[in-house]
Amino acid sequence: MRVVRLTVVPDADGMLRFAIPAAEAGRFEAEVRLTPVPAADGAPEPPRTIHPSYPPGWEHVYGSIQDETFVRPPDLPLTPVEPLG
After folding, report:
1. What is the dihedral of CA 36, 43, 14, 61, to 10 degrees?
2. Nearest to 34 by CA among 1, 8, 52
3. Quick check: 31 and 71 in contact, CB under 8 A?
4. Is the pTM of this model over 0.70?
Protein backbone atom coordinates (compact mmCIF):
# COMPACT_ATOMS: atom_id res chain seq x y z
CA MET A 1 0.00 0.00 0.00
CA ARG A 2 1.23 3.46 -0.86
CA VAL A 3 -0.21 6.69 0.58
CA VAL A 4 -0.48 9.66 -1.77
CA ARG A 5 -1.46 13.00 -0.22
CA LEU A 6 -2.81 15.78 -2.42
CA THR A 7 -4.19 19.23 -1.70
CA VAL A 8 -6.81 20.19 -4.25
CA VAL A 9 -9.21 23.11 -4.74
CA PRO A 10 -12.70 22.65 -6.23
CA ASP A 11 -13.29 23.96 -9.75
CA ALA A 12 -15.89 26.65 -10.40
CA ASP A 13 -18.53 23.92 -10.68
CA GLY A 14 -17.66 22.62 -7.20
CA MET A 15 -15.98 19.43 -8.43
CA LEU A 16 -12.61 18.14 -7.25
CA ARG A 17 -10.44 16.82 -10.06
CA PHE A 18 -7.08 15.21 -9.51
CA ALA A 19 -4.76 12.59 -10.98
CA ILE A 20 -2.85 10.03 -8.97
CA PRO A 21 0.35 8.68 -10.54
CA ALA A 22 0.70 4.89 -10.56
CA ALA A 23 4.28 3.60 -10.59
CA GLU A 24 3.29 0.23 -12.05
CA ALA A 25 0.63 -1.26 -14.28
CA GLY A 26 -2.24 -3.25 -12.88
CA ARG A 27 -5.39 -2.81 -10.86
CA PHE A 28 -5.61 -0.65 -7.78
CA GLU A 29 -8.10 0.00 -5.05
CA ALA A 30 -8.32 3.66 -4.04
CA GLU A 31 -9.70 5.18 -0.88
CA VAL A 32 -10.40 8.91 -0.78
CA ARG A 33 -10.83 10.89 2.42
CA LEU A 34 -11.83 14.55 2.14
CA THR A 35 -10.61 16.77 4.97
CA PRO A 36 -11.61 20.47 4.84
CA VAL A 37 -8.71 22.88 5.18
CA PRO A 38 -9.43 26.22 6.90
CA ALA A 39 -8.94 29.41 4.91
CA ALA A 40 -5.49 31.02 5.07
CA ASP A 41 -6.89 34.00 6.98
CA GLY A 42 -8.52 31.70 9.54
CA ALA A 43 -12.05 32.82 8.62
CA PRO A 44 -14.55 29.95 8.65
CA GLU A 45 -16.36 29.16 5.43
CA PRO A 46 -19.96 30.38 5.35
CA PRO A 47 -22.48 27.64 6.10
CA ARG A 48 -24.35 26.20 3.14
CA THR A 49 -28.08 26.71 3.27
CA ILE A 50 -28.86 23.76 1.02
CA HIS A 51 -28.01 20.08 1.13
CA PRO A 52 -24.21 19.67 0.91
CA SER A 53 -24.46 17.25 -2.02
CA TYR A 54 -25.95 19.94 -4.30
CA PRO A 55 -23.30 21.73 -6.38
CA PRO A 56 -23.10 25.53 -6.27
CA GLY A 57 -25.44 27.12 -8.79
CA TRP A 58 -27.79 24.11 -8.89
CA GLU A 59 -30.85 26.36 -8.65
CA HIS A 60 -29.96 28.04 -11.97
CA VAL A 61 -29.95 24.96 -14.16
CA TYR A 62 -31.30 24.93 -17.70
CA GLY A 63 -35.06 24.69 -17.65
CA SER A 64 -35.52 25.92 -14.10
CA ILE A 65 -38.44 28.26 -13.48
CA GLN A 66 -37.31 31.78 -12.64
CA ASP A 67 -40.84 33.15 -12.11
CA GLU A 68 -41.31 33.77 -8.38
CA THR A 69 -45.12 33.67 -8.79
CA PHE A 70 -45.10 30.11 -10.15
CA VAL A 71 -47.09 27.71 -7.95
CA ARG A 72 -47.13 23.95 -8.38
CA PRO A 73 -50.65 22.74 -9.17
CA PRO A 74 -52.29 20.39 -6.65
CA ASP A 75 -51.90 16.64 -7.10
CA LEU A 76 -54.73 14.80 -8.83
CA PRO A 77 -56.74 12.39 -6.70
CA LEU A 78 -55.51 8.79 -6.61
CA THR A 79 -57.39 6.25 -8.68
CA PRO A 80 -58.45 3.22 -6.59
CA VAL A 81 -57.01 -0.11 -7.75
CA GLU A 82 -58.08 -3.66 -7.03
CA PRO A 83 -55.83 -5.56 -4.62
CA LEU A 84 -53.60 -8.28 -6.04
CA GLY A 85 -54.47 -11.83 -5.09
Report:
1. 140
2. 8
3. no
4. no
